[in-house]
Amino acid sequence: MSHHSLLSNAAEVPTTEDVDTGLTSSIGRRASSHLIQRNKSKTEVEVGEDDSILKTAPLLQQDTTSVRGYTLKTVHLGAAFCLLFTAFNVAQAYITLLFPSIGTLVLGVIYGFFAIGSLGAPRVGELLGAKWAMCAASLLFVAFIGSLNSGMSRLVLFCSLLVGLGSGVLWINQGIWVSRLSDRTGGTLAGYFTGLFFTICNLNGVFGNLLAIALLQAGLGINIMIWGMFVAGALGSVLLIFADPMKPTTKPEPVPISEQVTAVWNVAKMKKSAVLVPCIWLQGCNLAFVFGRLPELLPTGSSGIAVAEVFLCYGLIQCIFSYVNGIIYDKFGYKPLLRSFLGTGLSAYLILLSLLPTLENSLHQKITSLLEPYLLVGGMLGHLDTTLNTTINLALSRSYKPGSETAAAFGFYRVGFCAAMSAVSLCSGGFSVGWVIVWNLTWTLIAGVVYFRFAGEVQGGSATVEQVLPTMQEPLASEKETVWNNE
Predict the structure, then answer these.
(1) What sign for the dihedral angle of Cα 312, 313, 318, 321?
(2) For FRET with 22, which of 49, 99, 215, 254 sits at 20 to 30 Å CA-CA?
(3) Helix, strand, coil share (%) of the chain residues, nearest 5
(4) Distance between CA 387 and CA 369 in Å, rounded?
(5) Contact yes or no for 249/2 (Cβ under 8 A)
(6) For 153-207, what is each residue's pLDDT tens digit?
(7) Domain segments of the chain: what residues?
(8) Superfamily the domain 66-246+264-464 falls into
(9) Taking CA 198 as the corner, what is the angle to CA 80 and CA 261, rounded to the nearest 5 degrees?
(10) Is the pTM value of this prediction over 0.70?
């Protein structure tokens, strides 16, 4: 999540960004390494003509070290989020089983207040710093998980309100944190850092559901499993304390919450924001369905273990494609991501429509009694969610100005996402699950068509890494010194 604001320079030499990108070649970015070697050979010819190029060597070496350090910082933050959401997402999947009368209401409250928390989150980040804002918000997640074992509906509803507010603070400041980190490496590794963070974070879907399956198969029951999630969430909260503060390179002026709300509204009125609205809305609708209605579609008699197995497939695919999508975007641009989320999204919801109990023949009854089709759908919906997440986050990174507009853009994203999830969670209870599936199927098609038609508004031409790297120029020395002096 970064912004490409490099300045021109006549010398065509390998920039700090070129060197930084090469660090990732050992984990899948071989194309970047090839480009670096190509630029390197060109530079060897030019060095003899201009000795001033030699002066850049110490700077390149220092920046190389910095990117290695930033990779470790990203891993640390991702690990903390992984533990926190190992706990929260597993607990969230069982809300409708633990509290069937208020389950969808709890989800609606969480994501309704998520939207409200997103509006004030930048201000909280300014007052506490991005890291400490995330730490404070994580405590509300831990409190919510613990409340699920209380058996008290009112307490759960109150804690769902708190965790909704905390979610806005947590995710907005996470976006700002990664954006600042990406900017410090010149802005060309947005896909890498975003993909790395979400790959580690989304391991929660694997670890959490494996832990849930193990506890439930041991006969410990859902309540003991929830306490296990409580401990995992608490560990994630503690790990956040030791994350890098990632302070801004220049101290921002405090902005009143009213002005931040106005800034979000101004972002919402931009044409490029309108292009992202269907994707943002679809992501919210998809998650509301996955956590609210998908468990009830599982074959009759399915246990809590079956729910965990479906969400294990969901989380495993999320984890894999969080990283793969970042590489695909950096190398090929947005179009492969667009095609893949259209393909998996439309296919998953069409499969679910075919599994609805509307046919009476024995073959259909036999198929719907199997868990395997739902495991497949769980994985496909996980791919849809993570691909939308990558597409939206990187579009925000490329399309909005650094600083307050970036924060407002992430606020706009979270408000729209939460509005969709809250609305679908609160309203879907009044409709049969078939109509909810048709609703999401329709939005999948709308999101794909709109983004494909107007992608130029948010992609700036959708340059790939091959197009960007050979033409990148050296930033101003004073800009580098500002960054390094703040590390």
Answers:
(1) positive
(2) 49
(3) 80, 0, 20
(4) 30
(5) no
(6) 899 999 999 999 998 899 889 988 888 887 777 766 777 787 788 888 878 888 8
(7) 66-246+264-464
(8) MFS general substrate transporter like domains (1.20.1250.20)
(9) 85
(10) no
